[in-house]
Design a protein that fits this description.
The complex is a heterotrimer of chains A (283), B (198) and C (261). Chain B is built from 9 helices and no strands. With 198 residues, chain B is an all-alpha fold. The radius of gyration of chain B is 17 Å and the shape is globular. Chain C has a domain of 157 residues. In chain C, strand 1 and strand 2 form a beta hairpin. Classes of the chains: A alpha/beta (283), B mainly alpha (198), C mainly alpha (261). Chains A and C meet through helix 3, helix 4, helix 5 and helix 6 of A and helix 6 and helix 7 of C. Bound molecules: adenosine-5'-triphosphate (ATP) and magnesium ion.
Chain lengths: 283, 198, 261
């Protein structure tokens, strides 16, 4: 059985008539990195909340179809079971600070205190995660006195330290400056390379194209495409749904029109593929 | 059992996160108003807000903690007054449960009831702790009433009945204005959204 | 942004390293002694022979005196003037002018009230100057105070300075747009709304996401929480706390016995 299985999922937020997600089917295997792309309001966050159990437990509303995440069924288990298996990091770094801790070190330990982990083990785990997320230099600072990028890495560390089986990331860099984004992407890449199962809503398609195993494209709550980055991002219908395409694809499209792109070659989605295409035409 | 359930009902995660924001609203607006030298305190808008959308117990807790926090950060003199703040939240909360937080004129009634509670509860504190005289301007009224031969408790109580309503009505109306500015979808996350919608 | 989260002054001292509960118990028993103990001069004695020496031992003597003067002087001045003139039971006139006359009963009453308040405020001040709020809350929740209560208090202490900073930003922005915040009463009330509105709504918007964030960190999971920080406590301190509790009870008992006779 796949680690995440959604069958025929339809979800309505409370007091709404049109579904935020409609007839969605999705299977994600252990160790896979799935990216979710879609225009504003397409349902990316809604899907992230569903996989992390906040839908239906926190948001209420109507959930139809079946959901199984790491063996948990939200109709049988509470949010508590979800948060022990699925870690959620979202857009606004500032709002993810617990608010009850005065240093970054204590902030990261907050989740472990709530899980009832023994203090000695707690310190080991916090030290380890601080190293992995490269925030050793921040550990004695106040979590509020950090830049957005630093806060987001602290948020990631605070979730990772709880050792979730699945990491759900909802546009974790959309509110960060380029340097902050770089730092956060680096940590995510490290986690992906270590074989963690990652679900990530993200609009920076160049990055997604390079690191995701598969991409799910959403539009108005429905899945319009699911496949490898090349299959999804190279597909011509994406812009119709208001989904940004990789700038390498854009270049190649223009080049194709001008007769500067090898006809048989598919549309590139990463820099490397783009360079290869041009090398071929020049040769 | 009924009591415990009634208390539990007020507290979900939204309440927990809301209370610190409400206390901060109390403290920061209280300080701004003091700075602008307005003839009111307006230091319990957050308390009334929580009382209306989360319930009386949450309101009482917000009031009490506001006072303690004010004592911790600004002035330890505030600490003994916590019962007043507690009752402001508690009474506002029950008023909201009774439907007195749905239209602006009902909110004025809530303001009056809250003022009566605040005046009554602060009187014994003022009398036994400070001998009836505190460092606020309204103590001049108390002194005047004492000069005209009233006994201490009557003097303090009448002073409080005179000065409290304006402040508490303004406080409740401002809290009401804030609630009107929030979306139904947001309010629905709190324990008692039915207090303000019909 | 004001970086002072509370009165706390981080220093190494014997008082700082006491268990927070011991300091809390000390504050409460001093207040009980001051209000219910015998004699007019007991509160002053407690102040000079217990509180001041402890503040010196805690290396916060200067801040202790400065802060208590700043907080209490206006109240005391007011109290003495008003009580000596208007104390209801006042008969022994010390001096009079125009329609007023000061009575010695009023002065004694003012002295009694002022010294009690002095002990009350400075007991807490000593606790606050030498104890980090998060240490206090950690220790209390370890002893059974609900974790949500300590969450609320510590998170409030962090939100307030942020909101104050935000208020300053909004105020500056409005002043630069020519909004008048001075002048007559109507003007000042009018200037309040555009300041308070944005401040309140922007902070309320954050609430939903913050609730999700602490849920994601298992805050409401029904397991017994552990604590990263180990707060030292000793047998000696526990004994001390029991002694203080007994002393407080005896004082209250003495007061009840007195009022019954
Ligand atoms: N709490 C809510 N209550 C009601 N409707 C909601 C709620 N949250 C989102 N929606 C609606 O559900 C739909 C999907 O929203 P969602 O936030 O999942 O989109 P998104 O793809 O994450 O968009 P964005 O790129 O803006 O983050 C939108 O139409 C939105 O208005
Ligand atoms: Mg979103």
């Amino acid at each position: 059985m796949a680690l995440i299985e959604l069958k025929n999922l339809t979800y309505h937020y409370p007091l709404t008539n049109s579904p935020a997600l409609q007839d969605l089917d999705l299977e994600v295997q252990e160790g896979e990195f799935l990216a979710i792309v879609g225009a504003n309001g397409a349902g990316k966050s809604t899907l992230c909340y569903t996989i992390s159990g906040f839908i239906p437990h926190f948001f209420k509303g109507e959930l139809a179809g079946s959901v199984s995440v790491a063996g948990i069924d939200p109709t049988k288990a509470g949010l508590g079971e979800f948060v022990q298996k699925v870690g959620l990091v979202f857009q606004n770094p500032f709002n993810q600070i617990s608010g009850s801790k005065f240093t970054v070190y204590e902030e990261i330990a907050f989740g472990l205190e709530n899980l009832g982990i023994d203090p000695a083990e707690m310190r080991e785990r916090v030290d380890e995660i601080i190293r992995l997320t490269r925030i050793e230099d921040l550990k004695d600072r106040s979590p509020y006195a950090l830049s957005g990028g630093q806060q987001q890495r602290v948020a990631l560390a605070s979730i990772l330290v709880m050792r979730p089986q699945i990491l759900v990331l909802d546009e974790p860099t959309s509110q960060l400056d380029p340097i902050g984004s770089q730092e956060v992407f680096q940590v995510i890449k490290d986690m992906a390379l270590q074989g963690m199962t990652i679900i990530m809503a993200e609009h920076k398609v160049e990055w997604v194209a390079e690191f995701a195993d598969r991409i799910l494209a959403l539009s108005a709550g429905q899945a319009i495409k699911l496949g490898t980055p090349r299959e999804v991002l190279g597909s011509p219908e994406l812009p119709e749904h208001g989904i940004g395409i990789s700038r390498y694809t854009q270049v190649a499209r223009k080049a194709l029109q001008a007769g500067l792109w090898p006809e048989k070659r598919s549309m590139p989605v990463t820099l490397d593929e783009c360079v290869q295409g041009f090398q071929e035409i020049i040769a | 059992m009924k009591l415990i359930n009634s208390i539990k009902r007020d507290f979900n995660t939204m309440t927990l996160v809301m209370i610190p924001v409400a206390i901060a609203i109390n403290v920061v607006i209280g300080q701004i108003v003091a700075l602008l030298k307005l003839p009111v305190y307006l230091d319990s808008i957050g308390t009334v807000l929580v009382a209306a959308i989360c319930g009386p117990w949450a309101g009482a807790l917000t009031g009490t903690l506001s006072n303690i926090i004010w004592g911790l950060l600004v002035d330890p003199n505030a600490l003994p007054w916590f019962p007043v703040a507690l009752f402001i939240g508690f009474v506002a909360g029950w008023c909201a449960v009774a439907g007195l937080f749905r239209t602006w004129w009902k909110v004025i009634i809530t303001g009056i009831l809250v003022a009566l509670a605040a005046a009554t509860v602060s009187t014994p504190i003022q009398v036994y702790l400070y001998g009836g005289i505190t460092a606020s301007g309204s103590s001049f009224i108390t002194a005047f009433l004492l000069q005209t031969g009233r006994d201490l408790i009557t003097a303090v109580l009448s002073t409080n009945f005179l000065v409290e309503p304006i402040d508490k009505i303004a406080t409740c109306l401002l809290a009401f204005a804030i609630i009107k500015g929030l979306s139904t979808r947001y309010l629905a996350r709190f324990p008692r959204p039915e207090n303000i919608t019909m | 942004m004001p970086d002072r989260l509370s009165f706390f002054i981080p220093r190494e001292s014997r008082v700082h390293s006491l268990n927070p509960l011991t300091k809390l118990a000390l504050a409460f028993s001093l207040i009980i002694l001051a209000f219910f103990g015998p004699g007019l001069f007991l509160p002053v004695a407690l102040y000079f022979f217990v509180l001041v020496p402890l503040s010196l031992l805690g290396k916060v003597g200067k801040e202790f005196l400065q802060t208590s003067f700043r907080l209490l002087l206006p109240l005391f001045a007011f109290l003495f003037v008003m009580q000596s003139l208007f104390y209801p039971g006042g008969e022994t006139v010390i001096f009079s002018f125009w329609i007023f006359s000061a009575t010695s009963e009023g002065v004694v009453f003012a002295f009694r009230t002022a010294t009690r308040i002095l002990v009350m405020v400075s007991s807490f001040l000593l606790l606050l100057l030498t104890t980090h709020p998060s240490t206090l809350m950690n220790d209390l929740s370890r002893r059974g105070v609900p974790a949500s209560l300590s969450y609320i208090i510590t998170s409030t202490l962090q939100i307030i300075p942020q909101m104050q900073a935000r208020a300053v930003t909004i105020q500056d922005a409005q002043r630069s747009r020519g909004l008048d915040t001075g002048g007559n009463l109507i003007n000042r009330i009018r200037s309040l709304l555009p300041l308070v509105g944005p401040l309140v709504f922007s902070s309320l918007v954050d609430v939903e996401e913050r609730a999700i964030a602490i849920e994601a960190r298992a805050f409401t999971l029904p397991v017994k929480k552990t604590s990263l920080i180990d707060i030292p406590d000793s047998r000696g301190e526990a004994v001390l706390r029991w002694v203080m509790a007994a002393l407080s009870l005896m004082t209250i008992g003495y007061r009840i016995w007195l009022s019954l006779n």
